[in-house]
Amino acid sequence: MGDSQRTARRWHLDWRLLVFSGVFLPVLLSLGVWQLNRAEEKQTLLDRWQQEAETLPWPQMAEQGLTPGRPVTLTGRYGHRTWLLDNRTRDGVPGYEVLTGFYPLEGPPVVVNRGWVPAPRTRDRLPEVDAPDGVYSLQGRVGEYPVPPVLAEPAEPVERWPRRVQSLPEATARAEIPGLPGGILRLSGQRQPGAFRADWEPDMMGPQTHYGYATQWFALAVALTILTVVASYRRSELPKDRSQ
Asked: Environment class of residue 79 by beta-carbon count within 10 Å: exposed (0-12), middle (13-18) or buried (19+)?
């Protein structure tokens, strides 16, 4: 009977592979833990902000400083000054973002971004963006004054309202509405009084995003461990079985 040759997988230590895994595995695990900690911190911050929005008076909140993403609840009236932020599109349709002054019953006024409206067909016409009369309660989040990273076109020399602008720096807004704080208010949804299409992207990375990143880092750590174990088993030749 002829010789037969068998092969099997046996454990072989490769010091280079072990060094590679030993370096990167702790890094991946630490990144995953860091993202979990960031998610917990962000959730705590959001919870505190939400509680402050419901209990902290607007004058005190504005005095402390407005951080982007912070929720705010205000009660007051819309003013008559409205800026139309030009060159804003939704779904490929040109339009404007509507920014109107708002005067709370207590505390400083604030510019409210009421959302997006489509532009009329011709540039000589402006959309109808009248603000509702009366006292309303608004909910939203703090945003930054819309100033593009490039040099904007000069504002159109008009005295009437609303005004079409390419940007709205804080100094320009304060020249018309003295006492404005260091941020604007973005309405939280289209059901808010005076809102248009207010479908904003989140102003800050939420806890769920951090949890997603943590899952990715841990998944890479698991994949690295599995690949290390699989690569350590190599096919080797077993002793020949000689039969008479």
From this structure: middle
